[in-house]
Design a protein that fits this description.
2 domains; 60s Ribosomal Protein L30, Chain: A; Alpha/beta knot; four-stranded mixed beta sheet; alpha/beta; 12 helices; six-stranded parallel beta sheet
Length: about 270
């Protein structure tokens, strides 16, 4: 075990900030579950910092695998690890990962596909849940607008339960969406409380669609530039006992329904 030198500690602590992550092009994922998921999707960390005290058998097994894969393992004190954690108590393992350098056009595969667009989503928990649902229901890549919480924010990474490692991520702007619509034939569906019924929209859908699903904040929905580009506005039917659904809940329901109809059409 060796203490972190001040310069290295400062560099790693900067990854707790958006500015630091952008400068270093790195992000952190903390805890055994996230690191296991990174291995599952073959997104290995550049290094793992850990404290030997209190490591579980599961954690030891994971570190053994990482060692075989030649991932640098750096033993540090609990005090140093706590300084790198964004939680009150460190989980004992922190992985440092490279932020992929990707543009929207590089992440979109040819042929039919489903894309999630997060626009004006400020809550990290909602963003992480949407990323997880996107992976579960085949919406890949996930695009984010500049007014959405940064996807490599530690709280987003944690709330995605590791799904962040299984999807391609890219920042986007209206011009990118216009290009995808024009050159690749995608339709932009926007979740909007005043839109047509989701059930009705799905009935009209022949399957194997090229769909970009835009989900905005519960309070204000997607931003005007995204609304202007919408080919279809859709809503989820529910009782009048609630005014609206949480953005992550609504987005997840829509993705599941679209996934289900596409799977049926492929049988």
């Amino acid at each position: 075990m060796s203490p972190l030198n001040p310069e290295e500690r400062k560099r790693l602590q900067s990854l707790l900030t958006k500015k630091g992550r952008r400068r270093e092009k790195l992000f952190m994922a903390e805890g055994i579950r996230l690191l296991e998921e990174s291995a599952r999707y073959k997104r290995l960390p550049q290094a793992i910092y850990f404290t030997p005290s209190g490591l579980t058998e599961r954690a030891e097994l994971l570190l053994g695998k990482m060692r075989k894969w030649r991932v640098p393992l750096l033993s540090v004190s609990a005090k140093d690890l706590n300084r790198l954690s964004d939680t009150e108590t460190s989980q004992g393992l922190i992985g440092i990962f490279k932020i992929p350098d990707s543009a929207p056009e590089k992440t979109v595969r040819p042929g039919p596909g489903r894309i999630l667009l997060m626009d004006n989503i400020s809550d990290p928990g909602n963003a992480g849940t949407l990323i997880r649902s996107a992976l579960a229901f085949g919406f890949n890549p996930v695009l984010v607008t500049s007014n959405t919480v940064e996807p490599y924010n530690p709280k987003v990474v944690r709330s995605s339960s590791g799904a962040i490692f299984g999807v391609a991520m890219a920042e986007t702007e209206p011009a990118d969406l216009t290009r995808l619509k024009r050159e690749s034939g995608y339709e932009l569906w926007v979740a909007d409380i005043s839109g047509e019924s989701l059930t009705g929209a799905i009935i009209k859908m022949p399957g194997k669609e090229k769909i970009i699903l835009a989900v905005g904040s519960e309070a204000t929905g997607p931003t005007p530039p995204i609304m202007k580009l919408a080919d279809r506005k859709i809503r989820i039917g529910h009782t009048s006992l609630v005014e609206s659904l949480n953005a992550a809940v609504a987005g997840s329901i829509i993705m599941q329904k679209i996934y289900e109809i596409n799977i049926e059409s492929e049988k």
